[in-house]
Amino acid sequence: MPETNPDTHVIDFRAAEQLLAARDPRGAVKLLDSVIAAHPENTAARLLRARAFFAAAQLRPAELEFELVLEREPDNAFAHFALARTYERSGRSERALRHFRLAAALDPKPEYVAAARFPGPPPAERG
């Protein structure tokens, strides 16, 4: 087994980002497994692995990783949004809506707000 050091983990993390961008989520997960084994507290690596699991349609592992990220960073709007997408793909729309709304409340990006489906004003007030 090759010797690893902190530089190796940075290289693996960056390579995993590239693999995910190149639509090889399973390859990204393999690289990130060793990074997370060495640095289980690394939230960025866990978030990237969650995204890779989601892209590989491994919804339960993605859900667990996104939840772990949110335990550590409850104000991470992207993690709420991604967890909501994971719940949505799993057919759990009520749970998804809760996290879509949390994401939109934390960061009012148009994509987050649209997914949150906040009720609008009554028709008489729309102008």
TrEMBL record:
Entry annotated with the keyword Repeat: yes
Pfam families assigned to the protein according to its UniProt record, in alphabetical order: TPR_19, TPR_2
Protein keywords: Repeat, TPR repeat
InterPro entries in the record: TPR-like_helical_dom_sf, TPR_2, TPR_rpt
Tree of life domain: Bacteria
SMART domains found in the cross-reference section: TPR
Protein name as it appears in the record: Tetratricopeptide repeat protein
